[in-house]
Amino acid sequence: MPTPPNPRTMFDKIWDAHIVQAESEDAPAILYVDLHLVHEVTSPQAFSDLDARGLKVRRPDRTFATLDHSTPTLPPNQAGERPYVTPEAAAQVETLRRNCAQHGVRLADWDSADRGIVHVMAPELGLTQPGMVVVCGDSHTATHGAFGALAFGIGTSEVGHVLATQCLLQRRPRRMRVSVDGKLQAGVSAKDVALAVIATLGFSGGTGYVIEYAGEAVRSLSMEGRMTLCNMSIEAGARAGMVAPDEQTIAWLRGRRLVPQGAAFEAAAERWRALATDDGATFDHEVRIDGAAITPMATWGTTPDAAAPIGAPLPRAANDSTRRALDYMGFAENEATTHYPVDVVFVGSCTNGRLSDLRAAADVLRGRRVKDGVRMLVVPGSESVRRDAEAEGLDRVFLDAGAEWRLPGCSMCIAMNGDLVAPGQLAVSTSNRNFEGRQGKGARTILASPATAAASAVQGVLADPRTFLEAAHG
Amino acid sequence: MAEPLKKLVSRTIVIAQESIDTDQIIPARFLTTTTREGLGAKAFYDWRYDASGKPKPEEQLNTIDAGEHRVLVAGDNFGCGSSREHAPWALMDYGFRAVVSSSIADIFTSNALKNGLLPVVVDPETHARLLADPGARVTVDLEACELTFGNAPPVKFAVEPFARRCLLDGVDTFGWLTDRIPAIEAFEEKNAA
């Protein structure tokens, strides 16, 4: 294909198409938002801002809410009462219900078959589409970039701005391309790629950037895998990560409830195909990673970039940060993280709570048992994932292995609904953050893929899942 | 709307740790609130209180006079992680008006500026000098975009110009944006066509 006269990146094409008022020295751009996703935790004060000013939600048709963060994952009691962790958590959910009713905003409520973690349910419904600007009061909004959307997290004041105007004030970020070249090895998942990317960039390597993920290894990922990869962009400091839409993207979206239907879909698909970065377009920064060299990864420290191949020796405590991280984790320098007994295994979250993730964990667990003394919690990312998993019998695989099977929600990833790792316990978790106390005060977290989490549940220590998978397929 | 801020003279409190994430600044279990108020009591909660909920006497955050220490000097990559605006709300309510580091996370910066908490990014050398001198008296001058301490010449810092004007003049960002709804409507009409 000939190089166009003014080659642009995918980011630039989307950004330029959403400028209501151009950026100047004095003021940021006014950027139009196509889709605003809302949940109970970061929205109450924003709705209060609107109420205080006597404003209504300007575009309820571009707004969609769900319940996910504060919601219990255990079923209601016989009286129909949900086991909320505190009355405040229950009140927060009630507040979102009331705000949605008052402002005419669609809500995937408790009784909705659509409810789920915001970054799992919105793509499922077809709300997320290529070329869109998608925002949510949640730092993992970059997930939606897997579809070739510009998607990023915002604060509550900005949630108010979008509710009231459908716009945000934004300065143009810098652009980075991360190319993961080569073919991934068998048994290496999108989570391993994400952890390898973050380890390469460092905890703030993406600050100020929007990342476009490219390269053969990225293209080979399923849509679910691309969501996992984009989801964790913020863990390297980048507000957004994106992957160019291709035929797989279009096939995944075709027929979903809220995408255009029929001829309108085919017309949209034509526009989506044109979003990819033009040949000759330049980025502010380029990073190349050898995808063929990536092996199953896990974190050893208290930031997501503190990740290494499973089995690699822990680093020396060469500086205060490393020393503090090793002390907190209770790990000794030069040891391997595979030596420490695991107390809890969590499979779920907006990073790894999709059907393919549950299948990967179930493939390891089928016919095996969670080791005595290990608690394993499996939390589907949405009601749709739950239905599909139960239809395939994955719930039986987990229950037969001795794991718990819960209702959808953020659960133990953010640990604000009562699903906690106890102080001092070591967890292998498919979530996105291993910060001190993230999964509960004093909890110690190792981040890894669903297959690794399941293998670790069986072994009782952090384990490379490839031995299990070879046994299953060999 | 952010409280106006022009010039701040204060002693510093230093937390040298890198990557102080928003889960440290305010743990997630305190995010079930539906208001912005009173979160200072929960700031750095798990650092300040032991398992039984008693304040840790050795923790410097429990010993300072919040009225006198309004500038937090922190390790690199401050405010990373979750987008929770509860983090700047908690820091403001605790008494801080400025955070100084060698880098500050994007979403935290945006959230802080909307609330009148000034993120100040300085060069690594200045950062190292500030980290080495806890309790130093500093002047943060938003008008001049300069930070001064000790006998060293003032150090320039950058603040997004619009946010700076909003802070200096007490401009209401929300109102500024809603005043532009006609332009937004025109954009929508053009794109619907």
How would you characterize the overall build of this protein?
The complex is a heterodimer of chains A (474) and B (193). Chain A has 474 residues and is of the alpha/beta class. Chain A folds into 3 domains: 10-170, Aconitase, domain 3; 174-246 and 272-292, 3-Layer(aba) Sandwich (Aconitase, Domain 2); 298-473, Aconitase, domain 3. Helices cover 32% and strands 16% of the residues of chain A. Chain A has helices at 10-16, 44-52, 87-103, 118-125, 156-165, 190-201, 216-219, 223-231, 247-253, 263-273, 320-329, 349-352, 355-365, 383-391, 394-401, 450-459, 466-473; strands at residues 19-21, 29-32, 35-38, 63-66, 106-108, 133-136, 150-153, 167-170, 174-181, 209-214, 240-242, 285-290, 297-299, 307-309, 344-347, 375-378, 404-405, 426-429, 444-447. In chain A, the strands form 5 sheets. Chain A has a 5-stranded parallel sheet. A 5-stranded parallel sheet of chain A has the order 17-16-15-18-19. In chain A, strands 11-10-9-12 form a 4-stranded parallel sheet. In chain A, strand 3 (35-38), helix 2 (44-52) and strand 4 form a beta-alpha-beta unit. In chain A, helix 2 packs across helix 5 (156-165), helix 6 packs parallel to helix 8 (223-231) and helix 13 packs parallel to helix 16 (450-459). The longest helix of chain A has 17 residues, at 87-103. With 193 residues, chain B is of the alpha/beta class. Chain B has a single domain, classed as Aconitase, domain 4, CATH 3.20.19.10. Chain B has a 7-stranded mixed sheet. In chain B, helix 4 links the parallel strand 3 (98-101) and strand 4 (118-121). The chains are: A alpha/beta (474), B alpha/beta (193). Chains A and B meet through helix 2, helix 3, helix 5 and helix 11 of A and helix 4, helix 6, helix 7 and helix 8 of B.
Largest sheet of chain B: 7 strands, mixed
* Name given to the CATH homologous superfamily of chain B: Aconitase, domain 4
Radius of gyration of chain B: 18 Å
User: What fraction of the residues of chain B are assigned to beta strands by DSSP?
Assistant: 15-25%
Mean pLDDT of chain B: 94
Tell me which oligomeric state these chains represent: heterodimer
Uncertain segments of chain A are: none
Could you tell me the number of beta strands of chain A?
Answer: 19
The second-level CATH architecture of the largest domain in chain A is: 2-Layer Sandwich
Helix content range of the residues of chain B, please? Answer: 25-40%
CATH overall fold name of the largest domain in chain A:
Aconitase, domain 3
Shape of chain B: globular
Strand order, largest beta sheet of chain A: 5-4-3-6-7
Name the beta content range of chain A.
15-25%
> What's the gyration radius of chain A in Å?
22 Å
The CATH superfamily of the largest domain in chain A bears the name: Aconitase, domain 3
